[in-house]
Specification:
By secondary structure, this protein is mainly alpha-helical. The chain has helices at 3-7, 12-30, 36-45, 48-59, 62-77, 79-95, 113-132, 145-151, 154-175, 179-188, 192-216.
């Protein structure tokens, strides 16, 4: 195995090919966009009440649900509208190509919370394995001399980390995605919002890095 794969930073071409394969692979297999914040939100936002409601819906009688929906539709729109909708659905079904839907796994279903939790945990495991494979790995309780010089260390340093995490989370929700969601999945699909978001956070990162370099001198 080449030495640079274990002991140095990955070259840009290898990283680009690796992330491109991951993003395209997730889309082809699951018809989902790869994003860390989306999995994080899905892992923490679903409550027990939502799980119970989903379970009751799964156990409900499909025929009874269809019957109730039909009665409500007839009452709201009348039989003519329902007949027209049924004709349109029949025409669409006749024009649809035969065979399974596009995608390796068929119709997309909601991923269970365990899948999102596993994805997030394996991010940390992957980072740990990469660190263990590095010749310069060591256990540290700080973020380096630059961070300590800027924050003063101690409780102030911890507060800076908490505040930074809060701002990152707030910005992620406000922007509708994180760096992986916008930078990888969104930009690869030329989504305007993702292009703007990626330019914003990368531009800010460059400006902050120059500011930190000036302060550190």
């Amino acid at each position: 195995m080449p030495d640079w794969l274990l002991h140095d930073y990955w070259p840009w071409w290898f990283s680009a090919a690796f992330f491109a394969t991951m993003v395209v692979g997730v889309w082809l297999a699951e018809r989902r966009l790869l994003g860390v914040s989306g999995s994080y939100a899905a892992a923490i936002e679903r409550t027990r009440e939502e799980d119970e409601a989903a379970r009751r819906l799964d156990e409900a009688d499909p025929a009874a649900i269809d019957d109730a929906l039909m009665r409500a539709t007839l009452a709201a729109f009348g039989p003519e509208a329902v007949a027209e909708l049924e004709r349109e659905q029949a025409a669409a079904a006749a024009a649809a190509p035969a065979g399974p839907p596009i995608g390796l796994t068929g119709p997309r279903q909601a991923m269970p919370r365990s899948a999102h939790v596993t994805f997030l945990v394996m991010l940390a495991v992957g980072g740990l394995l990469g660190a263990l494979g590095s010749s310069g790995w060591e256990v540290r309780t700080d973020l380096g001399p630059l961070h300590e010089a800027l924050t003063g260390g101690g409780a102030i340093s911890l507060l800076a980390l908490v505040g930074g995490g809060f701002l990152v989370g707030f910005g992620t929700r406000m922007a509708g995605g994180c760096t992986s969601g916008h930078g990888l999945s969104g930009c690869s699909r030329l989504q305007p919002a993702s292009l703007v978001a990626t330019a914003s956070f990368f531009g800010t990162a460059v400006a902050v890095s120059f500011a930190l370099e000036a302060v550190a001198r």
